[in-house]
């Protein structure tokens, strides 16, 4: 109560002059009824830093679509709720903590607002002159207050509910809503490749719309404090780190809709659903699709290719988009595996292993110990090592691995179990350890070390081009980590043909025509 007093007292004093003015002219205006309570969810609000609650309501007053403002305490940010973004407020007696200001339109003097009257059964407009559209009604309930929204427009500018949280939308299955933007409080997580477009823009809405309007954009991040709007093309973001509203990080994922997912809630859209890349987004490959999943810590975007896809004549061997194949699919059949080298300086082996698992992979097993050196292309087209360093400026491999770095240290799937060093996926190995001993770096390793990283480049074993160094699993002296898996076909995922069946759309197989290449290369990013 003391807190509330100190908060409202200066506000009251400040507003005294306008109070008498109001009663004199008796002109209706937007005012705020302040109560002790808390919105039931913040996840559709706009968060801003303010010096006072007065500034918070001031921002809401200036924004025509704002219907409510909230602050937990004077050190917490201010949350602004746009029309249709909040349904319920819990009163203090029912456990709601903080201060809520309802925007009302009234001719009552601001210092004598009759809150029981104004907050029970009254309807308010966004535009005082508009009596049918963008209305909201506030009702008093046992636990607090309920807000309902009234809109009688024939669908016009407010299409697809402006991508607000409360899905499904009434018009969500209309053709004009065939691409949606799912908004989350989050920031790009580990191994994000900062490849895309970056601009400084004033608001999150502007940033969101940029991504929506740009064909290459697959996901977008907005930092409220810096106002940087970074748009990512497909494949660049795998881990989206979940945050809370007060962290000031917005992200949105662009998703194509079909007859089925247009009826889903926002949470369902993010819960293990598959989406086609084309035609909604720029496709650096044909026959691409992606899966979105939700974990307690992350939203995951995993990008796949049809197993028959080719890239400029080279087959991609049925591996996920952001990984490479260890050999030709047809030549070696099931011996082919997929691998992904990821730059993440300072990561521990324990964390690296977890990030591999979240990608349905294991820390990488060295397939051909000692048999390859950098850049060597044998009959098997071995790329496991050569791709470590090179940032090939092809669409497929942008930002892959450790561009420009030499030497490179990367966690591998080699762990000491009892007395024996054991590979994470021994079935990947072409040669037995007895026939082709692990190339340990000379004079490295300690008796207590149970993990190992690959050491490639300058200073490494000259014959193989690399060696392994034993290290404590919590060591942070690495540049990143390497994961491996069998091909998509052996993963428990939906295949391209099953996804296209849901969308009713299939791309040609497999390469691009010259005209198509020209068009794709003209794409802005
Ligand atoms: C948003 O809030 C609702 C209600 O509290 C909750 O059920 C839902 O899981 C939240 N969604 C996200 C994405 O945080
Ligand atoms: C202010 O509110 C936030 C959010 O509820 C809470 O995390 C924080 O501890 C509060 N701070 C104080 C000083 O009460
Ligand atoms: C609301 O109730 C809590 C206890 O549930 C109390 O600590 C707090 O001071 C009250 N007032 C406000 C403004 O949150
Ligand atoms: C409402 O209508 C009046 C008279 O046409 C006009 O002067 C005023 O600007 C309008 N108000 C808004 C908020 O559009
Ligand atoms: C919805 O989006 C359109 C276009 O960006 C904008 O003009 C309109 O004001 C938005 N409506 C609401 C209620 O946010
Ligand atoms: C985005 O642009 C700003 C301003 O040019 C720059 O300071 C910032 O580092 C850029 N962010 C990224 C991630 O490139
Ligand atoms: C959305 O619909 C328009 C026509 O209404 C069509 O041109 C476009 O290709 C569709 N986009 C997707 C991703 O289905
Ligand atoms: C790693 O763990 C050991 C023992 O568990 C501890 O002594 C050491 O400080 C840790 N090192 C780092 C870099 O965290």
TrEMBL record:
Coiled coil (residue ranges) = none
Q: Which residues cross the membrane?
A: none
SUPFAM superfamilies in the record, alphabetically?
Answer: Hairpin loop containing domain-like
The residues forming the signal peptide are: 1-20
Q: Which UniProt keywords apply?
A: Signal
What SMART domains does the database record attribute to this sequence? CW (SM00605)
- In Swiss-Prot or TrEMBL terms, this protein is called PAN-3 domain-containing protein
């Amino acid at each position: 109560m003391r807190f509330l007093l100190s908060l409202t007292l200066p506000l009251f004093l400040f507003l005294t002059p306008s109070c008498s003015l109001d009663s004199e002219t008796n002109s209706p205006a937007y005012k705020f009824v302040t109560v002790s309570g808390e919105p039931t969810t913040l996840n559709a609000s706009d968060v801003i830093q303010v010096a006072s609650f007065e500034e918070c309501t001031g921002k809401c007053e200036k924004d025509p679509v704002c219907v409510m403002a909230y602050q937990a305490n004077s050190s917490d940010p201010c949350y602004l709720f746009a029309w249709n973004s909040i349904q319920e407020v819990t009163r203090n007696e029912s456990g709601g903590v903080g201060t809520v200001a309802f925007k009302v339109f009234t001719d009552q003097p601001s210092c004598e607002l009759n809150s029981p009257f104004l907050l029970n059964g009254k309807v308010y407009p966004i535009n005082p002159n508009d009596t049918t559209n963008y209305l909201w009604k506030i009702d008093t309930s046992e636990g607090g207050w309920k807000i309902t929204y009234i809109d009688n427009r024939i669908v016009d500018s407010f299409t697809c509910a402006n991508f607000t949280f409360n899905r499904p939308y009434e018009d969500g299955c209309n053709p004009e809503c065939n691409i949606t933007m799912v908004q989350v409080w989050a920031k790009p997580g580990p191994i994000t490749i900062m490849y895309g477009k970056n601009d400084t823009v004033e608001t999150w809405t502007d940033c969101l719309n940029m991504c929506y309007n740009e064909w290459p954009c697959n996901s977008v991040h907005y930092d409220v404090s810096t106002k940087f709007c970074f748009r990512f093309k497909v494949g660049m973001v795998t881990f989206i780190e979940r945050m809370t509203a007060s962290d000031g990080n917005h992200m949105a994922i662009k998703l194509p809709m079909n007859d089925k997912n247009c009826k889903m809630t926002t949470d369902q859209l993010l819960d293990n659903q598959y989406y086609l890349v084309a035609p909604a987004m720029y496709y650096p490959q044909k026959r691409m699709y992606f899966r979105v999943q939700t974990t307690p810590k992350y939203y995951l975007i995993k990008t796949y290719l049809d197993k028959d896809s080719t890239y400029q004549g080279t087959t991609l061997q049925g591996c996920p988009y952001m990984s490479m194949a260890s050999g030709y699919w047809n030549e070696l059949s099931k011996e082919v595996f997929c691998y992904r080298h990821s730059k993440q300086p300072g990561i521990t082996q324990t964390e690296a292993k977890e990030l591999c698992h979240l990608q349905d992979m294991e820390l990488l097993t060295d397939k051909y110990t000692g048999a390859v050196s950098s850049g060597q292309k044998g009959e098997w087209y071995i790329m496991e090592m050569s791709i470590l360093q090179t940032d090939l400026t092809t669409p497929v491999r942008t930002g892959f691995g450790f561009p420009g770095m030499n030497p490179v240290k990367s966690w591998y799937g080699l762990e000491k179990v009892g007395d024996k060093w054991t590979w994470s996926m021994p079935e990947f190995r072409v040669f037995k350890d007895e026939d082709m001993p692990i190339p340990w770096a000379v004079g490295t390793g300690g008796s207590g070390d149970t993990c190992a990283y690959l050491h490639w480049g300058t200073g490494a074993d000259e014959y193989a081009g690399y060696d392994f160094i034993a290290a404590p699993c919590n060591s942070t002296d690495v540049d990143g980590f390497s994961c491996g898996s069998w091909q998509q076909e052996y993963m428990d995922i939906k295949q391209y043909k099953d996804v296209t069946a849901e969308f009713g759309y299939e791309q040609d197989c497999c390469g691009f025509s010259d005209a198509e290449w020209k068009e794709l290369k003209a794409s802005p990013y």
